[in-house]
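Question thread 4412

I'm putting together a teaching handout and wanted feedback from people who do this every day. The idea is simple: show students a protein as raw sequence, then show them the structure tokens that encode its fold, then repeat with a second protein so they can compare. Below is the first pair exactly as I plan to print it.
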Amino acid sequence: MSEHVTAEPAKPAQGLSTKGAPPEDLILVIAREFQVPIARVWSALTDPAQTPAWWGPRGFHTPRESVDADLEVGGLYRACRVRDNTGEEQWWSGVHTDIEPPNLFVFTHAWDKPDGTRGFETEVAFELAEIDGGTRMTFRQGPFDTPDNRDGQGQGWRESFDRLAEHLRRRA
């Protein structure tokens, strides 16, 4: 497994809209390689039954019953991660905007505020490619409103992807 993290000019994945070239430092890019077939990575990304095994950084869990997803273009999703030591709930939601199994999964993402409104929205894209018996995953999210928000999301995603790698190894 390897990882490359960078902020790069907006060269979005197919389906990831830039809405007119945002500043290059507002796009989060994380590339990971997994030594499992692409179908297994795709399944882990899109199967709500697998989400509790890897969604969220360490110190959080995502209960299966909190995940509501309509896996089709235009379909809505909503989920909650729970902070392990306090029980604090953090909900997020969005719309699936491009789904091309097993290579491309794109959706909007926003944290839900306590008053029921949605926070700042970004677009998320997972691109999967077969490589030498494994899978290269390129993750893009943005544009963010600030570099600090990009970095905070990046830390959480990297920990989630560490958990995803552990989940994929356990299912081998």
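The second pair follows. I'd like the answer to focus on this one:
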Amino acid sequence: MLAERAKRWPEQWKQQGLEEGRQEGRKQGRQEGREEGREEGREEGRKQGLQEGEQKGEQKGEQKARLEVARNMIERTQLDDQTVADLSGLDIAQVSTLRDELKR
């Protein structure tokens, strides 16, 4: 009886080794997948951050240009606030505030 069991041990060990190898392979594959996913996520986040930064920079630049145009119109013309707002792309409250600041 012991001899019969001993004959089956190599096959059992082989099966056990295969199962452990599969489990380890799955675990390692999941870990690598997570790490790759994180790196891809970071890269995507960097790209999106750069794009948003560029857009905000462009918006700030446009806003500065509008304010400069409005400032020049207020200082050099007799246009009313609504006309300055229409021509500069600012809203009337911004133009009124700018006019008040320039009076000081």
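Top answer:
Good format. For the second protein you could add a caption like this: The longest helix spans residues 2-76. Residues 2 and 8 are 10 Å apart (CA to CA).
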